[in-house]
Amino acid sequence: MRVFETHSAEETLGAGRSFAAGLRPGDVVALSGSLGSGKTQFVKGVCVALGAGGNVSSPTFTIVNEYPAPFGTVVHVDLYRIRSRREVAELGLEEYFTDRCVTLIEWPEIVADILPAEYVEVRFEHGAGEQDRLIGIGRSGA
Q1: Angle value at C-alpha 26, between 39 and 1, nearest 5 degrees
Q2: Residue 6: beta bridge partners?
Q3: Which residues contact 21 (CB under 8 A, 6 or more apart)?
Q4: Which of the listed ranges 46-50, 57-61, 110-114 does the model predict with the highest average pLDDT?
Q5: Considering the entire predicted model, what is its pTM?
Q6: Is the model's pLDDT at 91 over the cut of 70?
Q7: Which of 29-33, 62-66, 87-91 has the lowest mean pLDDT?
Q8: In a 3-state reduction of DSSP, which class is residue 42?
Q9: In three state form, how does the secondary structure of 65-122 look?
Q10: Which among 33, 106, 122, 131 is least buried, having the fewest CB atoms inside 10 angstroms?
């Protein structure tokens, strides 16, 4: 896993933009980290780079936000409030795992068993300073 360090919200957004250059339709990204560690800011950068429209915000209460993009849809999922397998099943997440979507999942631990065989893992940690973030990126799965 490669680790990058950012020192501001703007740098975390820029890291998301840079990361997006390697994404392709069909990719699933699992975003792990504590509250306030930069996941949504990173996703905003990804959306900008992928040409996704709309005001990108955390889907903490809506659970899933969809943003139109030139290739299809950027799907941003936040599973923080999901507490049961029944709730996961009702979301129908697997329907987003197609070549028409890039799917970004915050708090992916609850759905680890339904993620595709290959996905991108991004881990966020707070750094030494208040705005510092450590972002680890790697491939998981098969």
Answers
A1: 50
A2: 133
A3: 49
A4: 46-50
A5: 0.93
A6: yes
A7: 87-91
A8: helix
A9: EEEEECCEEEEEEECCCCCCHHHHHHHCHHHHCCCCEEEEEECHHHHHHHCCCEEEEE
A10: 131
* Helix (H/G/I), strand (E/B), else coil: 4: strand
In the predicted structure, residue 142 carries a pLDDT above the cut 70: no
Domains of the chain: which residue ranges?
Answer: 9-98+118-141
What is the spatial distance between Cα 24 and Cα 139, in angstroms, rounded to a whole number? 14
Residue 141 belongs to what H/E stretch?
strand 133-141
Specify whether the CB–CB gap between 139 and 121 falls below 8 A: yes
- Does residue 130 sit in helix, strand or coil? coil
Asked if 20 and 42 touch (Cβ cutoff 8 Å), the reply is no
- CATH code of 9-98+118-141, in short, is 3.40.50.300
What's the rounded Cα separation, in Å, for the pair 16 and 14? 5
pLDDT at 141: 57
With residue 18 as reference, give the H or E element that holds it.
helix 9-20
Beta bridge partners of 133: 6, 126
